């Protein structure tokens, strides 16, 4: 009887522990720097499929990274979502991710869109992509004069160039790719040429750059594709008028290809629900979630086999992209910032 009682108690404890694990896996805490209302559909669909409730904290990347560092081992975060390779790499080097082993993710997400840590496997994955295009004023600039990123630093474009802050992660990632491709000295020369060609000091976001080109304040500017497509899809008369005045080029089509960045994420270092966290990342790589990135927020799927149904996005046409490791581009942000400082690119 004594042995039976002990076995019964052991079985009961085991069942209770298993039940506890399953109960814990029924919720997931996401720290997200994505601020797109269209992501609500992603979260809702995941909960519908799995029964796992999602709790969200949304803030800009710096605020989230500071919060995660302050919370340390007591952080409730399961998933960290960021919108740029530079931000993802920063979270990685600060030890905020844990390695993720998933055959689903490794087979569906291309290797160059994975944030690998030597010997430990992927720390994070890119789940959607966006290109960095050159937008020009149709009345004042010829597209052949701004066909490459390097051409923006050419003296023929003096007084025409507008960008957001050079220290913004979107710009740091672009400059990181130039460093990887052209080398540090050539990139510094480019940065100095950009400063000489500014139409005004860097300011505003990518939408502001597009509007600046439309108004004639700028002749040419850099912008991420999803901002451009968002204005293409806008029903506001002022946006439609602005888009009639601008054109765009896919840069570097005869050489390296256009710079492409990612939005992505990984499992937090101290995730209390790691199994549910991996399940969520695998969901983001599913066909339905990948289509949501495209149709909802004008981003391209990271999974090559997924087809989209976004006429405005498709209107941008086929283009050649660079094949640099997105993790390496993120890593180069330190060198990129030093180049900007030396060149006086604010």
Q: What's a concise summary of this model?
A:
The protein has 346 residues and is α/β, with parallel strands linked by helices.
Task: Kindly describe this structure.
- The longest helix is centred in the N-terminal third of the chain and has 23 residues, at 2-24.
- The protein is α/β, with parallel strands linked by helices and 346 residues long.
- Strands 1, 2, 3, 4, 5, 6, 7, 8, 9 and 10 form a ten-stranded mixed β-sheet that branches.
- The N and C termini lie far apart (79 Å).
- Helix 6 (169-182) crosses helix 15 (333-343), helix 7 (184-197) packs across helix 15 and helix 8 (206-215) crosses helix 10.
- The chain is globular, with a radius of gyration of 23 Å.
- The protein has helices spanning 2-24, 39-50, 61-71, 85-93, 103-108, 169-182, 184-197, 206-215, 225-233, 237-244, 274-284, 287-297, 311-314, 326-331, 333-343; strands at 27-32, 53-58, 79-82, 114-117, 121-137, 161-162, 220-224, 246-249, 260-267, 300-301.
